[in-house]
Design brief:
about 325 residues, 9 helices, about 25% helix, globular, binds adenosine-5'-diphosphate, binds magnesium ion
C-alpha cells in the first residue's frame, strides 16, 4: 500500500479541453510537492481534483491506498488555502481560525487558536477583523485557519501571488518553515520557480496538462529530463562537452548529453574566454549581461556593475546535464 496521497492516471476535461492529462504522482507523508507550471498548465485543476472540487474524467485520487471517489470534499480532511485567503469578513481573526474546530470544547479551541496565531507569527491579533489586516497578515490567518483542525494534507493554490515581491519572498521562507515544523503533507501550486524551490521538497513540472518531471529541486535543476524542461527552468543555450571545455568548464558529459547554460552558469573571469556583449539589463540584483557564445547561441552572465566594453571574459562554472 502507498501511504499518503496518490494521484493515479488522473485526467480532467472541461468539455473538449483536456486540462490535466493522465497525471500520476505521489506525496509521501510529511513532504510537500510543488506543482510548477505556466498559467493554464493545469495546476489549479489538478489541485481542485485532489480536493474533490473537480470531477475526474479518468483516474483515481487515493489516500493511504483508499480511493477517495466516494468521499465528499469536506470529509476528505484536507485543508485548502487560495490566493485570496477568503476569510469570513464579519468574524474576528480568532473566530476565523476556530471555524473548523467545532468539535473541540471551548477552552481547547481557544488554546488551539493561540497556538496557531503563535505559529504564523500573529500572537495578539485574535480580536482583529480581517479588514484590519495587511494582505500578508490575512494570508497568515488563512494558513492558521486551514492548519487548525490538523488536516491530513494541505492544498495551497498560489497563496502568495497577490502579495508584493519582497513580502512574497519573506512569507515563502516562513511558510516553508511552518510546513516543515508541522510535518505537513502538502501540495503547493505556484508559477514562481523560486517559491517552488523554497517551499517544496519535490517539484512537479506541468505543461499543458502533462507532468513533465517530478524531482527534488536539486535533481530537477541539475538533470532536467529533456530540453523542454531545461528551457522552462531557464537553460537557454546548450553546448557539447568540447564547447563547454572551451568555455572553461571542468566537468564531463556522457554520450548523447549536452550542457544547458542558465543564468548562473557563467561567471565573469578576467582569465576566461572572451565573448561579445549583445546588451545589458539592470535587474533588482545585478546587471544581466547578454552575451554571444562562439556558436552564436546567447547566454547571460551576472555583473555587479554595467560592463564598459564590447566584450567580456567569462568562465562556465555550472549548468544542467540534458539529453541532446
Ligand atoms: P493553471 O492553474 O495552471 O493556470 P488551470 O487549471 O486553471 O491552469 O487551467 C488549465 C486549463 O483548463 C486552461 O486551458 C484553462 O483555460 C482551462 N480551464 C480552467 N478552468 C476552466 C473552466 N471552469 N472551464 C473551462 N476551461 C477551464
Ligand atoms: Mg491556477
Amino acid at each position: 500500500m502507498v501511504s499518503g496521497l496518490e494521484v493515479r492516471g488522473v485526467t480532467v476535461k472541461y468539455g473538449p479541453t483536456v486540462a490535466v492529462d493522465n497525471v500520476s504522482l505521489r506525496v509521501e507523508p510529511g513532504t510537500v510537492v510543488g506543482l510548477l507550471g505556466a498559467s493554464g498548465s493545469g495546476k489549479s485543476t489538478l489541485l481542485r481534483a485532489i480536493a474533490g472540487l473537480q470531477p475526474l474524467s479518468a483516474g483515481q485520487i487515493l489516500w493511504d491506498g483508499e480511493d477517495l471517489a466516494p468521499v465528499k470534499v469536506h470529509k476528505r480532511n484536507f485543508g485548502l488555502v487560495f490566493q485570496d485567503g477568503q476569510l469570513f469578513p464579519t468574524m474576528t481573526v480568532a473566530k476565523n481560525i476556530a471555524y473548523g474546530l467545532g468539535k473541540l470544547p471551548k477552552p481547547e479551541q481557544k488554546a488551539r487558536v493561540e497556538e496557531m496565531l503563535e505559529l504564523v507569527g500573529l500572537a495578539g491579533y485574535g480580536d482583529r477583523k480581517p479588514t484590519e489586516l495587511s494582505g500578508g497578515q490575512a494570508q497568515r490567518v488563512a494558513l492558521a485557519r486551514s492548519l487548525a483542525p490538523s488536516p491530513r494534507a494541505l492544498l495551497l493554490d498560489e497563496p502568495l501571488s497577490a502579495l508584493d515581491t519582497a513580502l512574497r519572498r519573506r512569507l515563502a521562507d516562513d511558510l516553508a518553515r511552518i510546513l516543515r515544523e508541522t510535518h505537513t503533507t502538502g501540495v503547493y501550486v505556484t508559477h514562481d520557480h523560486q517559491e517552488a524551490y523554497t517551499i517544496a521538497d519535490y517539484v512537479a513540472v506541468l505543461d499543458e496538462g502533462h507532468l513533465l518531471q517530478l524531482d527534488s529541486p536539486e535533481a530537477l535543476r541539475g538533470r532536467p529530463r529533456n530540453k523542454q524542461v531545461a528551457a522552462f527552468l531557464g537553460y537557454r543555450a546548450f553546448v557539447t562537452e568540447a564547447e563547454a571545455h572551451r568555455l572553461g568548464w571542468r566537468g564531463t558529459l556522457g554520450t548523447g548529453e549536452v550542457l544547458g547554460i542558465g543564468p548562473a552558469s557563467l561567471q565573469l573571469d578576467s582569465h576566461g574566454f572572451e565573448v561579445d556583449i549583445i546588451d545589458q539589463t539592470l535587474t533588482i540584483d545585478d546587471w544581466e549581461v547578454k552575451v554571444a557564445l562562439p556558436d552564436g547561441q546567447t547566454a547571460t552572465v551576472s555583473s555587479p556593475s554595467k560592463v564598459d566594453s564590447l566584450s567580456v571574459r567569462v568562465t562556465l562554472v555550472g549548468g544542467a546535464v540534458v539529453p541532446a
